[in-house]
UniProtKB/TrEMBL annotation:
Function: Involved in the type II fatty acid elongation cycle. Catalyzes the elongation of a wide range of acyl-ACP by the addition of two carbons from malonyl-ACP to an acyl acceptor. Can efficiently catalyze the conversion of palmitoleoyl-ACP (cis-hexadec-9-enoyl-ACP) to cis-vaccenoyl-ACP (cis-octadec-11-enoyl-ACP), an essential step in the thermal regulation of fatty acid composition.
Transmembrane segments: none
Enzyme Commission code(s) on record: 2.3.1.179
Domain of life, source organism: Bacteria
Reaction equation(s) it catalyzes: a fatty acyl-[ACP] + malonyl-[ACP] + H(+) = a 3-oxoacyl-[ACP] + holo-[ACP] + CO2; (9Z)-hexadecenoyl-[ACP] + malonyl-[ACP] + H(+) = 3-oxo-(11Z)-octadecenoyl-[ACP] + holo-[ACP] + CO2
UniProt GO MF annotations: 3-oxoacyl-[acyl-carrier-protein] synthase activity
The protein, known as: 3-oxoacyl-[acyl-carrier-protein] synthase 2
Signal sequence, start to end: none
Record-stated family: Belongs to the thiolase-like superfamily. Beta-ketoacyl-ACP synthases family.
Listed pathway(s): Lipid metabolism; fatty acid biosynthesis
Domain Ketosynthase family 3 (KS3): 1-405
Keywords: Acyltransferase, Fatty acid biosynthesis, Fatty acid metabolism, Lipid biosynthesis, Lipid metabolism, Transferase
């Protein structure tokens, strides 16, 4: 079995599009949530979101790329190229048939679907764009990344709602562990801040209707009322330890465990006892070969919804301990749906690298039903050797990865 290490990462998010900005935001509890600017959201009843700001399109793209790819694909490519630059990997020296891409998305090109359905309704089927399908289908973030970097190994897009990004990283880890690939870029990407995306989740009463950005995404707070939509991408470069060492790579961390389970309980609500999530955490740490008390930090799914945090807190306490540090970075980024696991894997890795616990921002009163040890409002310096990142999706999908601090 191969050990699997992380040699690069890239991120685009509401709190930063580069390593330094993203890290500083995590340490200072920078809130990336604000009024929606991409469309007039008044009629949806939801006016706040975590939009990507100052996206450096010109760094890797030309204008026509915006016509040929949806934003979630652009975000995925950007994060991948940033991750590969950090890793120092040279595709001209790699066996690209053993170089894979696993980038998940929950919904894919929802904006294109919305626009083209409206066009068909107003102007007839003959006016639907020939680019509709290539722009809209969920696998195209992974496909476009593979096209851009020339990856010819395993390539697909796990689609498991909000667990998609973490499933992608977990499946990439297993693929390399068992010797099928040398290198895989893995993570998640999403861009659903549009009329139908906001209206659809609002119809489920899943979104916060708060108008104060600092009181909108407040995971574990007693007054939480729903999640805030975010967008962006997070991608890791994973490779076997042998491969990384052979090319003299700078190793940033190690993936040591993965758990994947299903609640089989409800379409949109988690099992109230948290059993499915607890089993996924236990699977991940069992594969890592560690005990529950070895886990120093949990990057929680923490969506800012009543049902999620009560169940997830029970899961964490049951699988780990009441003392394990827990926080939700969605308090700063909002919920990136299928992209959440990728961005939160980067945040979890940073906690290991820089020995701190990112805070759950803007908490005023913790819910007394939450027993987990929530770190609130300010980052906390702490020894972090092992960390877990949870992603729990609609449909009962639970995905958990366990990361280890790298030490030579």
């Amino acid at each position: 079995m191969n050990r699997v290490v992380i040699t690069g990462f890239g991120v685009t998010s509401p709190i930063g599009n580069d390593e330094e900005t993203f890290l500083n935001s995590l340490k200072t509890a920078n809130n990336g949530i604000g009024p929606i600017t991409s469309f007039d959201a008044e009629e949806t009843g939801v006016t706040l979101a975590g939009e990507v700001k100052d996206f450096p399109l010109e760094k890797y793209f030309v204008k026509k790329d915006t016509k040929r790819m949806e934003k979630y694909s652009l975000y995925a490519i950007y994060a991948t190229l940033e991750a590969m630059a950090m890793s120092g990997i040279n595709t001209e020296e790699e066996n690209m048939e053993r170089f894979g891409v696993l980038i998940g998305s929950g919904i894919g090109g929802l904006g294109t679907t919305q626009d083209q359905v409206i066009k068909m309704d107003h102007k007839g089927p003959a006016r639907v764009s020939p680019m509709f399908v290539p722009l809209a289908i969920v696998n195209m973030a992974a496909g476009n990344v593979a096209l851009r970097i020339g990856a010819k190994g395993i390539c697909y897009s796990p689609v498991s709602a909000c667990a998609s990004g973490t499933h992608s990283i977990g499946e990439a880890f297993r693929n390399i562990k068992h010797g099928y690939s040398d290198v895989i870029v893995a993570g998640g990407a999403e861009s659903c801040i549009n009329e139908i995306g906001i209206a659809g989740f609002a119809a489920l009463t899943a979104l916060s209707t708060a108008t104060d950005p600092d009181q909108a995404s407040i995971p574990f707070d007693k007054k939480r009322t729903g999640f805030v939509m975010g967008e962006g991408a997070g991608v890791l470069v994973l490779e076997s330890l042998e491969h990384a060492q052979a090319r003299g790579a700078n190793i940033l961390g190690e993936v040591v465990g993965y758990g994947a389970t299903c609640d089989a309980y409800h379409m949109t609500s988690p099992s109230p006892d948290g059993n499915g999530a607890a089993r996924a955490i236990t699977e991940a740490i069992t594969e890592a070969g560690i005990s529950p008390t070895d886990v120093d930090y949990v990057n929680a799914h923490g969506t800012s919804t009543q049902a999620n945090e009560k169940a997830e807190s029970k899961a964490i306490v049951a699988a780990l301990s009441k003392d394990t540090y827990v926080s939700s970075t969605k308090s700063m980024t909002g919920h990136l749906l299928g992209g959440a696991g990728g961005v939160e894997a980067v945040a979890t890795l940073m906690a290991l690298q820089h020995q701190f616990i990112p805070p759950t921002a803007n908490v005023t009163e913790l819910d007394e039903e939450v027993e987990a040890n929530i770190v609130v409002n300010e980052a906390k310096d702490a020894k972090v050797n092992y960390a877990v990142s949870n992603s729990l999706g609609f449909g009962g999908h639970n995905a958990v990865i366990c990361l280890k601090r790298w030490e030579d």
